[in-house]
Fold this sequence. Notes:
single chain
Amino acid sequence: MKYYCLGIKGTGMSTLAQILFDLGNEVSGYDDAKAHKFTQDGLEKRGIKIYYDDSFSFDEDTIVTYSVAMGEDHPELLRARQSQALVKAYNEVVAEVIDMFNTISVAGTHGKTTTSSLVKHILENTVGCNYFIGAGDGYARKDNYYFVIESDEFNRHFLTYKPEYAIITNIEAEHLDCYKDIDDIRETFAKFAHNTKNKIIAWGDSSEIRKINFTTPVIYYGFNEDNDVVVKNVETTSEGSSFDLYKNKELLGNFTVPLYGNHMVLNTAAAIVVTHLQGISIDKIKQLLKTFKNAKRRFAESYVGNAVIIDDYAHHPTEIKVTLEAVRKKYHGRRIVVVFKPNTYSRTRDFLREFVDSLKVADQVYLTEIDCNREKASDYPGVSSSMITDQIPNAEIISVDTIDKLENEKDSVVCFMGCAYVDDLIAAFKDLMKK
């Protein structure tokens, strides 16, 4: 079959395009952004062509799938609808793909990518698996039995999925441009859980998750003693985090993973539970966790001189806070600087107080202007990054052109955060440090 993917450099669409190609389809796509993004690396590796104009020729054999970030009035989508091509929503195509396999779906407000990557790492190195991880990372073979998918609640996309197993990492207020409130979000997760066929692994310390009346059997995990699987004795070591894991009050084992922070320990616990349910031995899981490398832009560390650079996808206040706390734990005594790029006007408005509180974990705060491709500034008058910087002492607005504001941070840990493109900021900072 022939697929044309609109918004092909988006994290989800890039992954879908790679998987469609791996399953033997002819794949190409369109994107507005001509600048290089990390999400196109897998596309280029496979020779998938990216168009930046209207030169692609539609025919009746073409299936067009599109990202909601494109907008219904985007010229290329309008051109597709006016052609003979069949146009399908992104999540419809994803659902068609994963229905071919035994699927493990990872959902939650935070932690989806890391948890999916952990599950994928364990299964890939034991029984083999296909995977769809929203960091621009996807792969599939027709003869694999398992499919691991990061399942996004944005626009209720994941309600088209019917997995065998599901992980729910947490439920918080998020995407309030799509949901009315936390009750609406929780009820949507309940529908997702109802679609799960075999078993759910859920974070039992979450009051919102505990409110769900699950119709599918559930295993709760967490730090609290009322969970089926309990995390105990967490220690931070030079190798990452080590912890004991108990199931029904019996010790499963002591595990070490090269990740930092309690949130990462919880992600790891969920991955252990679901892979052990697939018959992977505890000893093999222990061995593989030690070799785990997190997904792109998840606490990705690099160095320039004595400065440490952290590149992280965190864009919600909770994600920012726990990541900065993990940075402080790992780099105790070092000065922590955060450069955050907000990516939507609605989230900036809806979580203003929370953003201020979470960013204050750092010693120095910088924000770029809001970088949004699915909302218009004119629809959110008065909403800007300055709303946040005005409430944090010494916080400033920064850009590539004013990166010299960081010239005295040669001994600092500088955290570049946001789900929008930050590579240009990191490159500019590296050049500054080299000078």
